[in-house]
Amino acid sequence: MPVIGTDAHLPAVDAGRLTPAALRQRFASPPAWQPEMAGDGRTLSGREPAHASVLVPLVDRGDHVHVLLTQRTDHLRDHAGQISFPGGRAETHDEDATATALREAEEEVGLRPRHVEVIGQLPTYTTVTAFVVTPVVALIKPPFTLTLDSFEVAEAFEVPLQFLMTPAHHQRHQFELDNVKREFYSMPWEAAGPDGEMRRYFIWGATAAMLRNLYRFLSA
Strands 50-60 and 131-140, how do they pair? Predict the structure, then answer.
């Protein structure tokens, strides 16, 4: 869909707020703030709301923090082919939203809990598929080795947090559905794929919305 604008007029989050220590402190003592986006604005008819969690993995690469993302396989029922955080539906044996996020991250990409330091949560986000998603934010300490679930995950890759926390990279799109105009964000990222060839990763939808809420939280 065509781009109707970017948010280059908004300031990027200062690099000093994006260090592991600063991120810990921000979640330990959160400011007064409001999320910009609470959901997709509609849900598919006939879908009962279901609780889910995603892990927002902030990888400590020393000089910079990166965000670990996945690309879902094309045959999945929900959000096929989209870029997302590791995560999924809550199970009855999960103690809480954090337990769901940790379990799903280990199942989907093989990220072991010993590498994960949970530092907080963002407000829930309701998707068009009626999932009420809790984003669980965590710092990830290398070295770690990922093992992808080939049924659900086509690829895992990292994007610098600084890039994603720069609104000049936040593109706004608009479409009309049932005579109602709706908008969504995208954050396209270009990098070398597994084959070494440059490719464009189109981060959009719920993932981009939760990243936008993270921007609002860190810039408040």
Answer: parallel
